[in-house]
Specification:
eight-stranded mixed β-sheet; four-stranded antiparallel β-sheet; 423 residues; alpha+beta
């Protein structure tokens, strides 16, 4: 299909942007934590059914996951995926539709909730793309699957859907496609062949000391000091053990010990997140973490061995060369110089590829920008992108609605049409 034909097709099948912009604001104002995405899923399922376009909708897969399947003759089966969950972050964007929601998390603590990673954009764009592609059914042939995944932030949603019999309920896709909004220029799209997002491992580490009175540290084994030693030493793994040509990140995101200032606790919990893009590097980093933690505990006189528990694991996301090069051609023809085929591999992580890798099917994932172009250009000119452009998971993360939403819709439709042949 020629690029001018695709452009004309997309424009002739355009959706009501006012409706979808309002829908985005609704999702942004009503976020739900991982494993609790019931209302988001119900809204998505209701809207899919209301299209009256022939989508076979199935819900409650792997938790709150849902799919819509549109069978439209012979051809490839293409899966488009969006994630639905939000984060335990207190929003500070100042938006009129900012979230004021609180929810009880899985640890039974009440926390503020925010769509600080853009999943509200992902859901809205996929719903709009589902309508757009249904309106142009006469121009393609094959089977379209739109999948709304729960629990991405905790790395469990994709696997849970597969384990819950996803592919006994729907056709196995030939290609799995997905996208993520990022702190880049709005209206721009980036992709790459090969590694596109990092592997991630998270751990909860419990350090055991001997508690006592704050005035008698000599009668205790202080786990706070032990944890401080662990945190400091962990920072040398990347800087002193990993080849500078290789990528690795070791982040301590949480330290918890005690409840008041005059009591030395008997234990401390340290939560660690690791990002790598090479299996050999990953294995070395994880071995070093275990060595450091055990060594610091022994040096501190810990009362027993530390408990190291893996909490989440994201796979390395790899874009299949053949599939991705075909997507490139569609994106280049439509987006022109607003498409970058050599974007950097992200340090962030995703679990979407499990939807394809468990079935031996190829995947392609891309990024679309959400930062107002003038804001980005001004920050870049001043050398202040890191300071002035909020990133995902920030309480200030607020992608501009347009052209972000329109770009996400177009990208999903273009990628799907790349593989859904003409009748």
């Amino acid at each position: 299909m020629a690029s001018e034909d695709v452009t004309s097709l997309l424009r002739s099948s355009a959706v009501d942007f006012d409706f979808y912009e309002a829908l985005y604001r609704h999702f942004h104002a009503q976020p739900e934590l991982s494993l609790q995405e019931s209302q988001t899923a119900a809204k998505a399922a209701s809207l899919l059914r209301s299209l009256n376009a022939g989508y076979e909708v199935q819900t409650s897969i792997g938790g709150h996951g849902l799919v819509g399947v549109l069978k439209n003759g012979a051809g490839k089966t293409v899966l488009l995926r969006a994630d639905m969950d939000a984060l335990p972050v207190k929003e500070d964007t100042g938006l009129e539709y900012a979230s004021k929601v609180t929810m009880r998390d899985n640890d039974d603590a009440v926390k503020p909730v925010m769509h600080a990673c853009g999943h509200d954009f992902h859901v809205t764009a996929l719903l709009a793309a589902a309508e757009c592609l249904a309106k142009m059914k006469d121009s393609w042939s094959g089977t379209l699957i739109v999948l709304f995944q729960p629990n991405e932030e905790r790395a469990g949603g994709a696997q849970a859907m597969v384990d819950d019999g996803l592919y006994s309920k729907i056709p196995v896709p030939d290609i799995v496609l997905g996208q993520h909004v990022m702190p880049q220029r709005a209206g721009y799209v980036g992709c790459r062949v090969g590694n596109i997002m990092s592997e991630a491992d998270s751990f909860k580490i419990t350090l055991y000391g001997r508690g006592g009175h704050g005035s008698m540290p000599h009668r205790t084994v202080d786990p706070v000091v032990m944890a401080a030693g662990v945190v400091t030493k962990l920072q040398t793994i990347v800087s002193r053990e990993i080849d500078p040509d290789q990528f690795a990140v070791v982040t301590v995101g949480s330290i918890q010990a005690g409840h008041t200032e005059n009591i030395i606790s008997d234990r401390a919990e340290v939560r660690i997140n690791v990002r790598t893009q090479n299996h050999e590097v990953r294995n070395r980093v994880l071995a070093s973490i275990r060595r450091v933690v055990k060594g610091e505990c022994e040096a501190s006189g810990a009362t027993k061995e530390p408990l190291i528990e893996e909490t989440t694991k994201f796979p390395l996301s790899v874009n299949d060369p053949e599939v991705t090069n075909k997507v490139f051609k569609s994106f280049e023809a439509f987006f022109g110089d607003r498409f970058d085929p050599n974007t950097s591999c992200s340090t962030a992580s995703e679990d979407y590829s499990i939807l394809g890798s468990t079935q031996g099917k190829p995947c392609c994932f891309w990024f679309f920008g959400g930062t107002d172009e003038s804001t980005w250009d001004d920050a870049e000119k001043k050398g202040r992108v890191a300071e002035d452009v909020p990133v995902n998971h920030s309480p200030f993360f607020a992608p501009v609605i347009q052209p972000t939403l329109g770009t996400g819709i177009d990208a999903l439709c273009l990628a799907a049409l790349t593989f859904l042949k003409n009748p």
